[in-house]
């Protein structure tokens, strides 16, 4: 379900974002080709408009690509990627985000990293756009049992039953991604109060995995 909704979202972004910007560029180029007697100033304006549309299309394509597989995860790992994300948000002054990480000094498989990063993106976006929060705290703790992500904001909260059951909603898709990793998602919220979201994802230590493989070989 999460994969289907993600494909729909990407398709909508391609259609409404890239498609629209490229259509504007095409119209401007078409006007340059078909209309005779245009002044040099008008030609310059149409050319500049077409170039701006193409530039915006490149930016949109980069953003979509980044959301699919954030390169910063491969470059800096989950702690570094989240640090960059929170620093960018704090520069905007829309919301103050604090980040605390514990035990993330080992390796985490790419699917778990991507799921946690996308979870933070989704919850951060919800806090800014829907909750009207001023502060948001992110904590990630890794221990032998797994990884726990706690995100807490001081926003206006929401009706849990209505929101989590919304087809194609961000929280519904997030829950599907977490459950796909045999994890759990817990939400503590009511209208008029802030929201606390807790995500727990089990992980397999490399040593345990090697022991299992050796036993299987015997």
Largest sheet: 5 strands, mixed
Tertiary shape: elongated
Rounded to the nearest angstrom, the distance between the terminal CA atoms is 39 Å
- Beta content comes to 15-25%
**So how many helices?**
7
Question: Fraction of residues in helices?
Answer: 55-70%
What class do helices, strands and sheet pairing give?
alpha+beta
Summarize the model shown.
61% of the residues lie in helices and 17% in strands. It is α+β, with helices and mostly antiparallel strands.
What does this entry look like structurally?
The relative contact order is 0.10. The protein is an alpha+beta fold and 218 residues long. The C terminus is likely disordered. Strand 2 and strand 3 form a beta hairpin. The chain has a five-stranded mixed β-sheet with strand order 1-2-3-5-4, with helices on one face. The radius of gyration is 22 Å and the shape is elongated. It contains seven helices and five strands; from the N terminus they run H-H-H-E-H-E-E-H-H-E-E-H. Helix 1 crosses helix 6, helix 3 packs parallel to helix 4 and helix 4 packs antiparallel against helix 6.
List the helices and strands and how they pair.
Blueprint: H1 2-34, H2 40-68, H3 71-92, E1 96-102, H4 110-129, E2 135-142, E3 146-153, H5 160-164, H6 170-180, E4 184-188, E5 195-202, H7 206-217
